[in-house]
Design brief:
heterodimer; A: mainly alpha; 6 helices; B: alpha+beta; 6-stranded antiparallel β-barrel
Chain lengths: 178, 291
């Protein structure tokens, strides 16, 4: 329960920051995709199923508050969380460089997926220009914030896990509620 | 969670299916925001407002330390007045230049003067480098509706595209989904504003479908057409930077510098009158051309 409330708060605060705080620090017209870093971090820390759910809800919030129709970001987030959580389930969580490289790779795929689903279909086929002016700068900027955000998520996750363990030892092995 | 793990394939497929269904059902241009989305918007609104206020405060270079509330309010009112006065000034200048022109154009400017305007604060930006869209703090409870024009400092700024009860999102004139039926003031040549992302990155947009014999040239002022299906007539959109022939040899296009300031937008005016149905997505000329 604590986990669900904390994650919901993180998702909402992240969206609010992305629409107000980060635009003040945009470089070359791009800002870091912090939602993507959160999804990747959470998926690496908690595995594919929870990663996919976290990605789904992060995308859903973006869809509902900023997009014109619902589903595209939810789908991208869902798949991102699932794919990133899959091979990293038993990965050593204190290594901060792995998330960095995963974020770089996922960000490129993410941008490309969004371009194909939402921009290319409107007839704007100038792909190489968009790679240079939007996709690469966004990826670089996103990668620079990846490690700090992963560190914060790792810290929060450790605290919640400890809390859950205490809760369980106090009240016996009840139903797993997350 | 472990129980779910056994049905991974079903989980994956149902997630994807759910998203695709959502896309399918919300793809209509006049789709109302869902109840959940409205609740979510209400939850995020205070956070956004708070951060917008705080970052604005930091952005002012810490100079507002010690300033009282009244000063900030006064500043806000003054900003709103500046936009209104510039709008009036522009209208007067245009009327002066065109005084000798057709009566219909004069009638159009009288209409422009009587537009019902509502001030709104910008509280957020669409967090995507592919778009130029802003979120304002007025929504359907303040009678904002889809396809209402948004006026900024200097001229037409954009059009409202998505409305929640207490917030709405507008596209600016340089967004690639924005369209407007427009006319050159001097020559009355008509065309359509339709930008793309590449021009958006340079803060420009494009006027298309200009007849090959049109006398339009750099420096000409572009206003919304009297026959526009969405916008009130005569709003200043921008000035022509350059004119280029299209490959088809029958039409030309012009690169337009928007008149409204697109950076550091804080206050905007919404034209509180809906000229078109909410389902319209592309602005067009109601009467294509009359000799």
């Amino acid at each position: 329960m604590v986990r669900i409330i904390t994650m919901a708060a993180i998702i909402l605060i992240n969206f609010a920051l992305q629409s107000t705080f980060w635009p003040q620090f945009s470089i070359m017209g791009v800002m870091p995709d912090t939602a993507l870093v959160l999804i990747v971090s959470y998926a690496i820390l908690r595995g594919d199923i929870e990663g996919a759910l976290f990605g789904f809800f992060t995308g859903l919030v973006h869809d509902m508050l900023a997009a014109m129709f619902i589903g595209v970001f939810a789908l991208l987030g869902f798949l991102t969380g699932y794919v990133c959580g899959k091979p990293f389930r038993d990965f050593f969580k204190d290594n901060y460089f792995m998330p960095f490289f995963v974020v770089v790779a996922v960000s490129l795929v993410h941008q490309f997926g969004f371009y194909v689903m939402a921009i290319m279909l409107t007839g704007q086929l100038d792909f190489s220009h968009y790679v240079r002016s939007i996709m690469l700068p966004t990826t670089v900027y996103t990668a620079t914030v990846a490690i700090p955000i992963y560190a914060v998520m790792h810290f929060i996750n450790t605290r919640i896990t400890r809390h859950e363990a205490n809760f369980k030892s106090l009240f016996g092995g009840g139903a797993d509620d997350e | 969670m472990d129980k779910l793990g056994k049905y991974k394939r079903a989980f994956l497929l149902s997630g994807i299916g759910l998203c695709l269904l959502a896309i399918f059902f919300t793809l209509r241009p006049d789709a109302e925001p869902l109840l959940v989305a409205r609740g979510l918007a209400t939850a995020v609104q205070p956070i956004q407002r708070g951060i917008a206020a705080a970052t604005g405060w930091v952005g002012d270079g810490f100079s507002s330390i010690g300033d009282n509330r009244a000063l900030i309010d006064e500043n806000r009112q003054l900003q709103e007045e500046v936009i209104r006065l510039r709008l009036d000034n522009q209208r007067l200048q245009q009327a002066d230049v065109e005084n000798y022109r057709l009566n219909s154009l004069l009638a159009m400017h009288q209409q422009y003067a009587q537009l019902p305007l509502m001030a709104a604060r910008v509280i957020g930006v669409n967090p995507s480098a592919w778009y130029s869209r802003f979120i304002i703090d007025r929504g359907s409870s303040n009678d904002v509706a889809r396809n209402m024009a948004v006026i900024g400092n200097g001229g037409l700024l954009g059009v409202v595209r998505q409305v929640h009860p207490n917030r709405s999102q507008f596209l600016t004139v340089i967004d690639s989904d924005f369209s407007a039926a427009v006319m050159a003031v001097r020559t009355e040549d008509i065309g359509q504003i339709r930008g793309n992302i590449r021009l958006m990155q340079e803060g420009l947009t494009r006027m298309d479908h200009i007849a090959i014999e049109a006398q339009i040239m750099p420096g000409d002022e572009i206003v919304t057409s009297p026959h526009s299906s969405i916008f009130p007539p005569g709003l200043l959109v921008g000035t022509v930077e350059s004119v280029h022939p299209n490959p088809d040899g029958l039409t030309r296009h012009a690169i337009i510098i928007p008149a409204a300031c697109l950076f550091d937008i804080e206050m905007v005016l919404v034209v509180a009158h809906q000229f078109a149905e909410a389902s319209e997505t592309v602005d067009r000329h109601l009467i294509i051309y009359e000799e």
